């Protein structure tokens, strides 16, 4: 009789264990909400800041430093002669905080050109919004697309609050570069 009870308890324990595994499976699926552009940096890259507005240059440099610190797949280093320019633009728009143009061959990026739109009040006046936008635009050059999850690549994020890549952004980087 005691043996039967023990067997039942083992069965119940197994059931709990299996359920727990299903739970973490589901969690990791919902966490992978990133989308990818289909291109990647073939190796480490260089950049030059070319804006005549010192606060724009500073925000690009901050964004570069954040990406270099938060992931170890690729690094980006300053080089005054780089053809990868990070700069500003003045484009009247109610929604365009910044833009990144990326050129690639067979999925390998050979040039990118990022701009922060200084016609936007918050780009001009808020360093957190500038940094959030610069990190987002660099994310595009690295191969990340837009997502609706809690991520720097979400176009509806609070730009004053979110100024670092999140778990989802870094998962996307792992998917591209691992
Ligand atoms: Zn975007």
Topology:
Blueprint: H1 2-31, E1 45-49, H2 54-70, E2 76-78, E3 85-89, E4 98-105, E5 108-117, H3 121-125, H4 127-142, H5 167-177
Parallel strand pairs: 1-2, 1-3, 3-5
Antiparallel strand pairs: 4-5
Helix pairs in contact: 2-4
Bound molecules: zinc ion.
Residues 136, 140, 146, 155 line the site of zinc ion.
CATH homologous superfamily title of the largest domain: Collagenase (Catalytic Domain)
Helix content: 40-55%
Topology order in helix (H) and strand (E) letters: HEHEEEEHHH
Radius of gyration, in Å, reads: 22 Å
Which stretches of 5+ consecutive residues score pLDDT under 50?
A: 6-29
Q: Any idea of the CATH class of the largest domain?
A: Alpha Beta
Topology-level CATH name of the largest domain:
Collagenase (Catalytic Domain)
- Total domain count: 2
Please explain how this structure is put together.
With 178 residues, this protein is an alpha/beta fold. The chain folds into two domains: 1-31; 45-177, Collagenase (Catalytic Domain), CATH 3.40.390. Helix content is 44%, strand content 17%. The chain has helices at residues 2-31, 54-70, 121-125, 127-142, 167-177, and strands spanning 45-49, 76-78, 85-89, 98-105, 108-117. It has a five-stranded mixed sheet with strand order 2-1-3-5-4, covered by helices on one side. Strand 4 and strand 5 (108-117) form a beta hairpin. The radius of gyration is 22 Å and the shape is globular.
């Amino acid at each position: 009789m005691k043996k039967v009870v023990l067997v039942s308890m083992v069965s119940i324990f197994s059931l709990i264990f299996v359920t727990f595994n299903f739970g973490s499976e589901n969690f990791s699926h919902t966490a992978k909400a990133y989308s990818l552009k289909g291109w990647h940096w073939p190796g480490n890259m260089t950049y030059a800041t070319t804006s005549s507005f010192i606060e724009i240059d500073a925000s690009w440099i901050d964004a570069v430093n954040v990406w270099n610190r938060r992931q170890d797949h690729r690094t980006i280093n300053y080089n005054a002669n780089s053809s990868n320019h990070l700069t500003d633009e003045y484009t009247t728009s109610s929604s365009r905080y910044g833009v990144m143009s990326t050129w690639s061959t067979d999925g390998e990026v050979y040039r990118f050109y990022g701009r922060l739109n200084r016609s936007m009040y918050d780009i001009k006046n808020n360093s957190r919004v500038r940094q959030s936008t610069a990190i987002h635009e660099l994310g595009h050059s690295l191969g990340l697309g837009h997502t609706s999850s809690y991520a720097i690549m979400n176009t509806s994020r609070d730009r004053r609050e979110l100024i670092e890549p999140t778990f989802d952004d870094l998962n996307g980087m792992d998917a591209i570069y691992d």
